[in-house]
Amino acid sequence: MNNKLQFMNLPEEYAGENSKFLVVNIPWEKDVTYEKGASNGPEEIIKASHQLEYFDIDYEAEIFEKGIKTIILNTESFENIKKQIPKINVNEKFPVFIGGDHSVTIPVVKSIDEDFDIVVFDAHADFFYSWNCSENNHRCVNRRLMDNHNILVIGLRSCDIEEFNQINKDDRIDYIKANEFNIGILKEKLSKLKKKVYVSIDVDVFDSSFIRNTGTPEPGGLTWNAVLSALEMVFNEKNIVASDVVEFAPNKGFDAEAYSLAKLVHKLFILKSHKNWV
What are phi and psi for residue 179, nearest 5 degrees? Predict the structure, then answer.
């Protein structure tokens, strides 16, 4: 692979088949609700990752030597994505999937052969049965996944009245509003989930003053430090099987945001390795 497409611009010796960490880019978007451009998000995050330091000062750790392999899927159709998602033994490798719109989480989660629940960082409930004539729309993600997984949404601050009524009466869905978020509430709600957890990060969970380039930006979101504190607790409390970062739609003045999200992906690897997984 051309190094320009390698996460962190790693040389081949640190980006091969034996890598413990995987970046799986899924540049897909279809029938998005507001701003377009999510299909360009993965490439811009990869480009920005070339500027990252190998050393993480927060955790005083360096994990590139364990290997970070980059995989880019062909996205001709949603069915094509499902066929291409690599079979990953999540006990041996830790993947982070980069979208693309949030609908990519549906085939990714369904491809993981483990018993787990889901933590979703998101401004929206994503609980519609169908949207724009599709049951696989990005606004239907949690509805598609709840049959087999309990779901905790962190950072919620926008939803339809029908969604709101449904998530309040369905025991499979729990949430923390952005304006009520604190670590104590998070710890209590995490205790209700299974030990194994998948983490999905829709970047609109961040306040729109920080991440402007996203499909459906919402004011009143979480800060970088709040999200990192939450992720640290989730990783400490649970066994994270995989993660994704979705809905970055680079259109204008996005360089700092792309770099921040590249750093977020790297933080996910650091957090996984910090529990002596590797």
Answer: -80, 0
Read off the CATH number of the domain in which 149 is found: 3.40.800.10
Cα-based distances in Å from 232 to 52, 118, 187, 226, 236: 20, 15, 11, 10, 6
CA–CA dist 126, 275 (Å, integer):
31
Type of residue found at 5: L
| Number of domains observed in the structure of the chain | 1
Q: Quick check: pTM over 0.90?
A: yes
Average pLDDT, the chain: 91
> Angle CA(13)–CA(19)–CA(22) in degrees, nearest 5?
120
Return the pLDDT at 32: 67
Decide if 158 contacts 221 (C-beta within 8 A): no
Q: Is the pLDDT of residue 139 over 90?
A: no
Alpha helices in 112-249 (DSSP H): 141-145, 161-169, 183-190, 224-237
Q: Is pLDDT at 255 greater than 70 in this prediction?
A: yes
> What is the model's pLDDT at position 126?
85
